[in-house]
């Protein structure tokens, strides 16, 4: 597959090379990872932008607070998230997913794209790679000791609850990271036909050895299901590559239900979310909602900006 990143993305080696448009809105969240703090530099470089920090409300399910206004919003309510976006009147919105969890990102993107249909909202996703993951080694498949402390269980992302019936022909696509236990858990719950499992691994990884770590970490489920025969490889930091691979698979099986498990890199998860938004009657996302450890990564690597409107309109 020809890489089309250049059509929709800009890549920056340092945050000082990036400038959001004047009078735009920049949505972000802090996490314990350093890469989520690139906004601190942006505030100094581009003070004419509305910076909006979001945070999950403790002990309230799928509720966020806009720390700029103090207002609460409900991720599972389209009207609530639309109210959030309508608070900020700019026509350009940057969603920095570096520090946002996938539940927040999914709801924001789903509803922002609905607003785009109504009033032409321009949406850019920004993502900062880590310079490295703090990986000791993956010698025991199924143990969540390196990146995730536990998983909360399979539950739809906000706005993505599916009522698509299970047809005879179902394709299960797992966008893999390092944690084979998550892959095993999803296979056990979804129970897809072994010959219809397509694992996806990022190549090249953020570091040269990461694809091998992913294969090693997932070796047990890949071997037990023999799905290693169907592995597909896409660029680890490219949501465009993930989206276009899924589009290519759909074209080959236009009548199949596609079940996506975005358990790998953040860009791959965003690509999967966008694909599910584009094809809601055919695509279902299954997600295990991991509770992350606080010290997963070090540093800031490349910074990727993607034009979401053009990607979806042209593909």
UniProtKB/TrEMBL annotation:
This is Uncharacterized protein.
